Amino acid sequence: MALAEDPVVHSILTVSDKKEHGRKRRVIGHGFTETAIRGYESMIQSQIQVFCEKLMEDGGEHGFGEESQGWSSPQNMAEWYEYLSQMTSCRDVVFSYPLDLLTRAENRFFVDVIDKMMYRVGVLSQIPQMLKWKLSPFVIPSGRLASKRFVGLAKEIATTRVQRVTADSHRDVFQNLIDAKDSETGEKLALPEVLAETMALIVAGSDTTSSALAAIFFYLSRNPEAYTKLTEEVRNTFKDASDIHSGPQLRSCTYLRACIDEGMRMNPPVSSPLWREVGNGGAKIDGEYINEGYSVATGLYALHHNPAYFSRPFRYSPERWIVSKDNSAETIELAKKAFAPFSIGARMCAARNMALLEILLTVAHVVWAMDLKVADGPVGRTGQGGLAMQRGRERDDEFQVDGHFVTVGKDGPVLQFQKRDLGT
Q1: Contacts from 286-292 at CB under 8 Å and sequence distance 24+?
Q2: Structure pTM?
């Protein structure tokens, strides 16, 4: 499914030809090697620092009130994580473009544009005939307008970046893809292909990261035992915020990784079925023969809540990812086989390691620097389910989202923050 009407160039997300997908995948992989991601880390860190400062700043709309006993005003974290992810994607990591959603409210329309566009993509991915029948402008007009606006904005951003391409250019994703060569043919991506890939990264990367972070903090804020264990691990591991970076110390934080994995299990960033067409000769799937031409898919939300792989699947339990006397290595290996927040196989997210690093660093920095709690009053219930909601949304301890290809339509959690007392 394309991000724009009848694109001249498909991205790795939309190309259907396996050979062409393989070529793109090999080249794009150069932008997300371990070395490349290390080069992006300082950019990610700088935006996380701004993010934490905005949550804790004194005065103003998001500041501390005189009668709050040091707690911030309520913060809708779905919004803040979208600002962080879009800012990280556009400003530094992908295009080095000064979007500044964290500090400039006038630029935040960009998030709404992407949400409306992805709503449209989600509908069309389930009913692709709407494009053929030319119904899209009538059924989802706001999505079509948003798609056109996004393409225009993305072209403006990309054009600005192209004008700065030199041999000594800043090593962002765009520059790495400009320079990358196919390991089999030695060919580079044409400039229109690079533009298509980077635009897709802005959408897919930022939405999935912000969705994962919103879900993770929803569950941490409602599971005090898990939150306490996490803060103890992070604060005992890192003596200063500057110590929080990729490396052995971060990898040693097993409970941090378990909290993140469990959040993405409960609310996979891409929860909608990712349809695949059965090729020539048909296919046998789970013992059932499927004729060629049929489309098949598995919804990750359903897979991640299958009790055959996850006991008490609707319970947030980071401990399920850690070996203990009550949780064997074999049980964890079985769970891992059904855990696919970034998809699996040839279509697995190419930027998954970068996304995971951003999530790890963000969670670690927030719980190191601040205490948090669910906001006081009715606003604190934002994002949770309830008996008055439709079937399947009745659980008040489950984060409620809508899936349109990626997870959009999220609201909350609404949290309050307090500067950590470094003396304790």
Answers
A1: none
A2: 0.87
